[in-house]
Design brief:
alpha/beta, 7 helices, 12 strands, Putative 4-hydroxy-4-methyl-2-oxoglutarate aldolase, RraA/RraA-like_sf, RraA/RraA-like
Length: 230
C-alpha cells in the first residue's frame, strides 16, 4: 500500500529510510538491471544526497571558435540553451545533463546559486564540475566526475532540454526520479516508481531487522533462510 500522497511526502520517505543500494536491488528483481549511472559520477562531498525528478538537459560538443560556420542559429549563441534550461528548473527537480564529451565542466557555482533560487534538488552531470569551493559553500548537491576547471563555454552547448537523454546505456526521461548518494546515482522510471518505492521501503525495514539479529549473534545462513535478505 502506498505510504505517500505527493512528491514531497515520497521524497521525505526516501531521504529518511532509503538509499541507492536497496532501490537498485528492487529494480534488479523487477528486471530493470541498467538503472545506475556511470560509477565515475560521484558526489562532490561524501554526505551529499540528491532526490528529485529529472529535468533532462542535452549537451553537445560545439567549438566556440567555429560558431560562425554552419546553419543552426542556436549554435551561434553562448552556451546554446543552457541559461533557458537553468531558468526552467522547478522545485525538487534535478538538473541532469549528458550528451557531450565528458572532458569539461558542465556545472558550477553560479549555476548552483540559480538552481537554489528555483528550489531545485541538485545537479547530476555526465562530466566534470568546477567552482568546487563555491558549490560546497552553498551546500548544493552536485554529482559529477569531480572537480575540473576546464569550462564548457568554448567547447559545448546545450542543444535541448526536457527530452530523453542517455548515459552509458541508461535512459533518463524528463520526470523520472533520481536518487544519488555516496554509492552512486540511480534512475527510477516514472512508470514503475510506485512499486519500486513500496518494495524498497519494505526491504530497507527488513534489512534493519536482519542487521539487529546479526548483531545479536544470528548466523548469516540462518538470517537469510529466515528473512530472505542479505
Amino acid at each position: 500500500m502506498k505510504e505517500w500522497n505527493d512528491d514531497k511526502a515520497l521524497f521525505s520517505l526516501i531521504k529518511e529510510e532509503l538509499y541507492t543500494a536497496v532501490i537498485g536491488d528492487i529494480m534488479d528483481k523487477m528486471g530493470y538491471t541498467r538503472q545506475f549511472l556511470p560509477p565515475q559520477i560521484r558526489p562532490l562531498r561524501d554526505d551529499m544526497l540528491v532526490v528529485g525528478r529529472a529535468m533532462t538537459v542535452l549537451e553537445a560538443d560545439v567549438l566556440e571558435h567555429g560558431k560562425e560556420c554552419g546553419e543552426n542559429p542556436l549554435l551561434k549563441r553562448s552556451f546554446g540553451l543552457m541559461l533557458e534550461a537553468l531558468d526552467d528548473l522547478k522545485e525538487d527537480e534535478v538538473y541532469v545533463c549528458s550528451g557531450s564529451s565528458p572532458c569539461y565542466a558542465l556545472w558550477g557555482e553560479l549555476m548552483s546559486a540559480r538552481a537554489m533560487q528555483c528550489k531545485a534538488a541538485g545537479a547530476v552531470v555526465n562530466g566534470y564540475s568546477r567552482d568546487t569551493k563555491g558549490i560546497l559553500a552553498l551546500d548544493f548537491p552536485c554529482f559529477s566526475y569531480g572537480p575540473y576547471a576546464q569550462d564548457q563555454a568554448p567547447r559545448g552547448k546545450v542543444i535541448d532540454y526536457r527530452v530523453p537523454i542517455e548515459m552509458d546505456g541508461v535512459r533518463i526521461d524528463d520526470g523520472d526520479i533520481l536518487i544519488g548518494d555516496i554509492d552512486g546515482v540511480c534512475v527510477v522510471p516514472r512508470v514503475i516508481e510506485e512499486e519500486v518505492f513500496t518494495r524498497a521501503l519494505e526491504k530497507a525495514r527488513g534489512e534493519r531487522m536482519v542487521l539487529k539479529k546479526i548483531q545479536e549473534g544470528m548466523k548469516a545462513r540462518d538470517a537469510f533462510d529466515q528473512f530472505g535478505i542479505m
